[in-house]
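Sharing a chain and its predicted structure for anyone who wants a worked example. Both blocks are below, sequence first, tokens second.
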Amino acid sequence: QPLDPVIVSNSPAHDSVNAPTTTPILLQFSKPMDTNTVQNSFRTTPAVSGKFTWSVARDAMTFTPAGT
């Protein structure tokens, strides 16, 4: 059976502390993703608004916080 997609890399690192709220977040997935599902599930703490961009293959997403 095929495996579910997973995040294979992310930036900043998942254990980063005190990352500025203006830092873009990059997620690299193991498979192409349904962009709407990922974006609707995406959360930051604290919550910030921003823009999503995707690779052509839909396997990498960048969230750029507003104002950066």
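Comments welcome. The CA atoms of residues 5 and 40 lie 17 Å apart.
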